[in-house]
Amino acid sequence: MSSSLLPHDFLRFPTERELVLRDQGTLVGVIPEICLVSHFQVGNWEVLYRPLTTGNVRRWGLPLMIPNFSRLRNGLFVEKGTTLPIHGFGRLLPWTLLAADEHQAQLQLQSSEVTRVCYPYEFTFTVTVAVASGRLTYTLEMANRSAETMPIAPGFHPYFAVAQADKPRLQVQGLAGFEAAAIDWERQPPDTPYPFSGEVTITFPEQGTLSIVELPQNGRYALHNMQVWTELPTRPDHAFVCFEPTVGSEDALNRPGDRLEIAPGTTASIVLQLHAQAQA
Question: Of 119, 128, 164, 159, whose CA–CA distance to 262 is shortest?
Fold first, then answer.
């Protein structure tokens, strides 16, 4: 085997960069400075993909896409005539660790001269990652400190570990129109939006069962799209499939009906939970 394909020992869990949260056989890793949930493990099942052979931070764990999911058409945020990168700037800028203990970590990103260039609003984004037995809870609070309404269309981008040969064997409930066995995973892997109604359950062969659940806030759901995506098997990182709960599909930030509108001086919250049960 080529040395370039050998696992990078410095990426084995936990690295020096990772905070470790734990509860009754459940482990969660967090890399605070890039707001990355880097690890979710229940028993012996490592639920999230870890790029041990490539070290590619862009194919790792559960990053946050904010203020926009995916690409904007021509990269343009029409409302303000600015440009935003694919999946926003949340994963590109340094976050501040506010607090951490054995069961949760709280991170924060505030508007700055850098963010105002592309997203001219005053905001505070606060992320709380918490662990309980078999469960990861991710709370995103978005405070609008501007004098005008702040449009936003974030999403979550979990990379779930699965062998290439097992992708057609995924069993998925709650995602209308998705059938793993009907997809050509070898030549035409999916990059497809599906309606998300608040809960999807996935059974991973020989691993266990995972539920992706949004907890409604004030009786309302914010995540209405589930993007399913993976890489071609010829890519160095491909042993994963992404089931991405997002506010809206591609370019949603430019569609008022498909984004969130946060009034001045108010805060909107999204709470996502991953429930995992390892196969006995």
Answer: 119
